Amino acid sequence: QVPFVESGGGLVQPGGSLRLSCVGDGAIFNIATMAWYRQTPGEQRELVAAINGVGGTTYVDSVEGRFTISRDNAKNTMYLQMNDLKPEDTAVYYCNLYRPQDSYWGQGTQVTVPS
User: Fold this and answer.
1) What is the pLDDT of residues 12-59, one digit of tens each?
2) DSSP labels for 11-52?
3) C-alpha distances in angstroms, 91 versus 52, 75, 106?
């Protein structure tokens, strides 16, 4: 059973916003540095943003200033607020540990920003 489930993706016009959610297994989620990743067909999965247990964050340069990662440990949930979306943000978005475990990859959630 995959411990993380992503949701919140969709089709949005350039400049629009979406908020992704990742609900996790509490035993894993609450002690882990978590991360959002994304993947487009034919490309390797890319780290987008990460957040540690005390709220420290890091972002890939391409989303810095547009995306915000956050977590609510009481709800075992991590979020990715995505603003000013661009066509190059189109991808399937996944959550996993910052040091990802192969068995933890879920189905992801599709984000599509048409050009």
Assistant:
1) 999 999 999 999 887 777 778 999 999 999 999 999 999 998 889 999
2) E--TT--EEEEEEE-HHHHTTS-EEEEEE-TTS--EEEEEE-
3) 24, 26, 14
Residue type, 14: P
CB-CB neighbours of 48 under 10 Å:
24
Q: For residue 89, how many other CB atoms are within 10 A of its CB?
A: 22
Tokens of 5: 């489930």
Q: Scanning the structure block, which residue is given the tokens 């475990």?
A: 101
100-115 pLDDT tens trace: 999 999 999 999 999 9
